[in-house]
């Protein structure tokens, strides 16, 4: 098994999954809209009010999250009113739940007031608090420092030329 971290300087970040995810949900308002969607918010005005953003920002973020496939617009019509749209999580959006839970869990631990978190998410069936942990495919809990970076199918290595310094982990070329 080759540890790619030893050749970290040779990686291209042109297709970094973290950077690409942040392009979609990397603003405060986008993350809070997703939080609200998981809490059941569906209507435009409710998103704007609950997130505390103006209508123009709400419209822009909802449009971006819809275009990215995390939310879908579904028409509804109240009696005597024009057709309007509500926003619902898609499968892609529902797959974002662990991210929201992890952010809330981190915030509860490291950013909450002295009184503690304002609300606690629990499992409807058993009442236990929700928590996110990192596990390998075999179910073992994995902590920071217990991982190895292996080549994925999308890895792009940048060519090194003679003028580029060797990575710190590699021996310097003999002169």
Helix and strand arrangement:
Elements: H1 17-25, H2 28-38, H3 44-51, H4 55-67, E1 71-76, E2 84-89, H5 91-94, H6 97-110
Helix pairs in contact: 2-3, 3-4
Description of the structure:
Helices cover 34% and strands 7% of the residues. The chain has 175 residues and is mainly alpha-helical. The protein is globular, with a radius of gyration of 22 Å. Helix 2 packs across helix 3 (44-51) and helix 3 packs across helix 4. The two termini are 31 Å apart. The protein has a two-stranded antiparallel sheet. The longest helix has 14 residues, at 97-110. Keywords: DNA-binding, Transcription, Transcription regulation. Pfam families: HxlR (PF01638). Residues 143-175 are annotated as: Disordered. It comes from Actinacidiphila acidipaludis.
Brief rundown of the structure:
This protein is mainly alpha-helical.
Give structural attributes:
175 residues, mainly alpha, Arc Repressor Mutant, subunit A, two-stranded antiparallel ribbon, 2 strands, 34% helix
């Amino acid at each position: 098994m080759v540890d790619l971290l030893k050749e970290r300087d040779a990686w291209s970040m042109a297709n970094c999954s973290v950077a690409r995810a942040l392009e979609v949900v990397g603003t405060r308002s986008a993350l809070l809209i997703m939080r609200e969607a998981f809490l059941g918010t569906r209507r435009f005005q409710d998103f704007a009010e609950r997130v505390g953003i103006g209508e123009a920002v709400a419209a822009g973020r909802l449009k971006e999250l819809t275009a990215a496939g995390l939310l879908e617009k579904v028409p509804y019509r109240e009696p005597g009113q024009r057709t309007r749209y509500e926003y619902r999580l898609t499968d892609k959006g529902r797959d974002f739940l662990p991210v929201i839970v992890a952010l809330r869990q981190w915030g509860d631990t490291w950013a909450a007031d002295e009184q503690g978190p304002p609300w606690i998410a629990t499992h409807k069936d058993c009442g236990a608090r929700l928590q996110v942990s990192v596990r390998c495919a075999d179910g073992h809990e994995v902590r920071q420092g217990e991982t190895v970076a292996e080549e994925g199918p999308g890895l792009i290595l940048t060519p090194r030329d003679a003028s580029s310094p060797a990575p710190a982990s590699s021996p310097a070329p003999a002169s």
